[in-house]
Amino acid sequence: MSNEPITLESQQEELRQLQEEQMKLSFLLAQVQALPMPRSVSVAQSVATATTRQTDAQSVVSSDSSTPNPDWTVDMVAEWVRQKGASEDIVKSFIEQEVDGSVLISLSGEDLKNELGVMSFGLRRKLTLAIDKIRTAANF
């Protein structure tokens, strides 16, 4: 803290600086308020959605035949990809790109690499072979 005496000029300068800061903050607040807000989801809806996703994914793990088909949801495909050894980043990519069963069976090695970020040759080959096997078994 300064030992200088408080003068009218110093108080006026401080007031001017505070007013400038207030204008900047008001501008920023207006920008934030203009942003689109996500729709509200109730806690009950969130729990129901999470439970459904968990059930879908668990059905992949617990089913006798964990062979994907066109009716599989995005979450079921994500769990299948996880079981094939994919990292969580790759699993997240499948979810973000909305890869469900009907999309999964149409994927090529190039799609896996270029669109979904499966850069590991081994994992890409493993997934490609599994998808080819599904196509053959289902006559796609």
Automatic annotation (TrEMBL):
InterPro entries assigned: SAM, SAM/pointed_sf
Domain of life: Eukaryota
Signal peptide bounds: none
Gene3D superfamilies referenced in this protein's UniProt entry, alphabetically: Transcription Factor, Ets-1
Xref: PROSITE patterns: SAM_DOMAIN
SAM domain residues: 72-137
Protein known as: Polar growth protein
Gene: BOI2
